[in-house]
Specification:
The complex is a heterodimer of chains A (about 110) and B (about 110). Chain A is mostly beta strands. Chain A is built from no helices and 12 strands. Chain A is about 0% helix and about 50% strand. Chain A starts with a strand and ends with a strand. Chain B is built from no helices and 10 strands. Classes of the chains: A mainly beta (about 110), B mainly beta (about 110).
Chain lengths: ~110, ~110
């Protein structure tokens, strides 16, 4: 069965430091891949998505993610973290090669120290 | 409205009672999704409606769970004979025409079964 693994449950970084959140998926072909952010008291917001083409995807709020087929990974990065980035981040893969039904990872909670 | 609206925002119910959760999608969105998020976990897909097509119910965990959608508007998720393991946040999302891949999420209904 398809799955998404986010190995880091909690990450703490200092404001201004770089960030990388890891995501690994299991699927035989190239899936549709997504990163969502969930801030306290708010709904999930799409940060970026990968469907095909350039493996480096740019998203909102200065985030980017790189699809690496050989590693079945889709890691999220940001060069300089802001305090407002503190939130929970979810990686998701489209089920069965589609994009209507998403399989989510368990999430990574990001804390930002001033 | 401007976004996906869910009601109630919080619901406490006694074990064995039935509950109804409501979702108002973004006007004009043809696709509607329900997900469940248990504490500390990622989202689990429950059900997907697309226009007038038969819904994808493959994620519903038991026959106590059902959902309806009136045309391309309001959806109701019903849980019968609630159990403590049903306690979770129930999230609704909607997206535009089938080619529009971004799902917009509501803030969820937090269900507590006591």
């Amino acid at each position: 069965a398809q799955s998404v693994t986010q190995p880091d449950i909690h990450i703490t970084v200092s404001e201004g430091a770089s960030l990388e959140l890891r995501c690994n998926y299991s699927y035989g072909a190239t899936p549709y891949l997504f990163w969502y952010v969930q801030s306290p008291g708010q709904g999930l917001q799409l940060l970026l998505k990968y469907f095909s083409g350039d493996t480096l995807v740019q998203g909102i709020k200065g985030f980017e993610a790189e699809f690496k087929r050989s590693q079945s990974s889709f890691n999220l990065r940001k060069p300089s973290v802001h305090w407002s980035d503190a939130a929970e981040y979810f990686c998701a893969v489209g089920a069965d090669g589609g994009y209507n039904k998403l399989i989510f990872g368990a999430g990574t909670r990001l804390a930002v120290h001033p | 409205g401007a976004g996906v609206s869910q009601s109630p925002s919080n619901k406490v119910t006694e074990k064995g009672k039935d509950v109804e959760l409501r979702c108002d999608p973004i006007s004009g969105h043809t696709a509607l999704y329900w997900y469940r998020q248990r504490l500390g976990q990622g989202l689990e897909f429950l059900i997907y409606f697309q226009g007038n097509s038969a819904p994808d119910k493959s994620g519903l965990p038991s026959d106590r769970f059902s959902a309806e959608r009136t045309g391309e508007s309001v959806s109701t998720l019903t849980i019968q004979r609630t159990q403590q393991e049903d306690s979770a946040v129930y999230l609704c999302a909607s997206s535009g025409n089938p080619g529009n891949t971004e799902a917009f999420f509501g803030q969820g209904t937090r269900l507590t079964v006591v």
